[in-house]
Design a protein that fits this description.
Layout (H helix, E strand, L loop, with lengths): L2 H20 L7 H21 L6 H21 L20 H13 L7 H4 L1
Helix pairs in contact: 1-2, 1-3
Length: about 120
């Protein structure tokens, strides 16, 4: 990892903890605020530790983009959890064959960047 990339990663990590420190839930209830702050911190620790040994520059860039997207979406909608998405249904393709593989590929491509790592840890 280059020094610039390392600084960028550590800067995002610090930014997440600063956001968690100042976080207020949308409802304003103290219990929910505490629960959401804990979620933000645990999610950040889990994902950053999971990606600690990533060395491929393209994959590092993708992880940074996902992190920035999740921060912006969380701040914009005032929810720390990933926004749900509605992927296209599987349709009538059988569980094997070319049509099934094609639909799986389309579902994978249609997943937004901020949910790329969510399925890996959930």
């Amino acid at each position: 990892m280059t020094p610039v990339t390392r600084q960028e990663v550590l800067g995002l990590y610090r930014k997440i903890f600063q956001i968690a420190k100042k976080w207020q839930s949308a409802s304003g209830q103290m219990e929910e605020t505490i629960k959401e702050k804990e979620y933000i911190i645990s999610e950040a620790k889990t994902l950053f530790r999971k990606n600690r040994n990533v060395t491929d520059p393209k994959l590092i860039k993708q992880c940074l983009e996902e992190c920035e997207a999740r921060i912006e979406i969380g701040l914009h909608y005032n929810i720390p959890y990933p926004r749900p998405i509605h992927l296209p249904p599987m349709g009538l393709a059988s569980k094997q064959g070319r049509a099934f593989r094609h639909q799986e590929k389309l579902r994978k491509l249609s997943k937004p960047i901020y949910l790329k790592s969510h399925d890996d840890i959930s």
